[in-house]
Please model this.
Amino acid sequence: MTRTLEERNWGFVAIRFVAIGAISFLVMQPLLWMAASSFKPEIDIFRDIGLLPRRFTFENYVRGWKGTGMGFALFFRNSIAMVSVAIIGNLISCTLAAFAFARMEFRFRSVLFALMMATIMLPQHAVMITQYIMFFRLGVANSMIPVVLPKFFATDAFFIFLIVQFMRGIPSELDQAARVDGCNSWSIFYRIVLPLCQPALVTTTIFTFLWTWNDFFTQLVYLTHPKLQTVSLALRRFIDGDALPAYGQMMAMSVLSILPIMILFAFFQRLLIEGISTSGLKS
Amino acid sequence: MAASLVLSFTDYNLFDKPRFTGLENFALMFSGDWHFPAALSVTLRYVLIAVPLQLLVSLLLAFVLNRGVPGLSVFRTLFYIPSLLGSSVAVGILWRQIFGGEGVLNIMLTGLGLEWARGVSWIASPRYALGTIIILRVWQFGSPMIIFLAGLKQIPQELLEAAEIEGASRLQRSWRISLPMLSPIILFNFVMQIISAFKVFTEAFIVSGGASGGGVVGGTLDSLLFYTIHIYSEGFVKFRMGYASALSWLLLGIISVFTFISFRFSSKWVFYNEGT
Model:
C-alpha cells in the first residue's frame, strides 16, 4: 500500500536493489568465507581465499570433532544439557512470575514490577562477583549449577515482561468463568492461561536457547573443569595455548557451533523477527 | 546486590576474611591501578564511536528498505544474521582470521596492490585494534534495523500523503515527518545499544586473547582492555574480589549516568505523538 504513494520508478528500484544486494553480500561475506574455509585443506585456507573451495575436504570436520583427548561430542552434549535445563528453568519460573504480575493482586505489585524491569539494565557483571562468592561458599563454583540454577528463580526479566504482556491480552472473563466452575488460581494458570500463552512460551524457549548457547562469560567463570567444557569454551581453546594453530578445524568447529542457531532461525524466523520488532515498539 | 556493594569497600580475596578498607578500592582505581584508565578509555571510545555508527547504518538501511526493494524479507533476514550470532565465540574467531597479520583482509589488500598492508596485524597493532571491534559492532546492525523498519511501517500514511500534496519533497518527508515520528524508537535503540556496548566482553576477549593473535588478553598495550575484561582479570584471575566488585559498581554507575543523560536530553529531540 506504500506503493500507491510513489510513482513507480523502476530505475530507482533497480538501483536500490543492486545497492542493497551488494551490501548484503558484504555483510554475509565473512560468514560465507568461514563456511568455505572449513571445507578447504589447511594449506589452502589463506592461499585460496575464494568462496568456492578449489580442493574440497571433510577432514577438518572429522579431525576437529574427534579433537585431542576429549572430542566435540562431549562438548556438544554439555552445551545441549546446559541449554535444555536453562530452558526448563526459564519456562517454569518466568511463567509463574508473569502469572503473578498479570493476574494476581498483591501489595507493591507495580513497584516490584518496575524494580524487575530495572534489572534488565543491570550488567550481569555487577552481580557476578557476589554470585560467584555465594556459589564458592556453597562449594559448587566448579559445576553446572551456577550456570543453570538462576534460571529457576526467574532472573531473566525480559522473558517475564514478554509473558506478562501476552497474558494481559488474554481476556480475564475466561478466568472468571473458570472460577465460577470451581477452578483455583493454580488450575486457572495451568489449564487456561498457560495453554493460551503458547507463542510467548515458544519465543522464550528460542531466546533462552540462543542466549545460553552463545553465552561465554558465565561459562568461562564457572565451568573450569575440563569435563564440563561447553562448545564455546572448547572453541576458545583453539586460540590459546601453545598448540599448533589448526585453522581448518577451528573454522569447521566454529561452523558447527553456529549451526544450531541457524537451524533454529530458519524454523522460527518470523516469530523471532516479530519478537524483536515488537520489543522496540511496545516500550 | 547489597552484598556486592558492601564488598566493594573491602579487600576480600575469596580465602581470607574480608577486611574493611573504606574507599581504598575506589582510590586505587585512580592512583594505583595502571590498567584502569586504559580500560575506561577503551570502553568509552568504543561506546561513543560504535553505537552512533551502528545506529546510523541501521537507520539508513531501514529507510532504503522501507522505500521498497524486491526481496525485502530475504534482505532483512540476511542483515539480521550477524546480530543473531551476537557475541558468540565463533564470531570472535572469525574476526581474528579476517584482521590478523596474515588474515583475509590483508590478502585482499595486497591483492589490490596495496603492498604496505602486508603483514600488518590490525589486531595486534594498538592503533587499529579497537577499530576492528567497532567494525564488529557496526556489522551487527541488523537488530536495531529491524526495529526501525517496524517503526517506519507504523507511521500513518495520511501524514506522508498530506505532506506530499503540500509539495514536500521525498527528502523533506523523511527528514521532517518520518524521522521525528521515529525518534522514540531511536531513543530506545540508542539506550539499549549503549547498555549492551558497555557490557561487551566475549568479542574483545577472543579477538585479543591467545598466542597467535599477537598478545595477551586485553590486546597490545591494553588497546583492547575493555572494562569488563578488566573486571574479569581482577576478580577471576587475580581473585581480588573486593576490588572487582568496586569496579563493577562503578560500571553500573557509569551506565546509569549515560542512560539518565539520554533520557534527560531526549525531551529536546524526541517527539511523542499524543494520538498513540
About this structure: The first helix of chain A runs from residue 10 to 37.
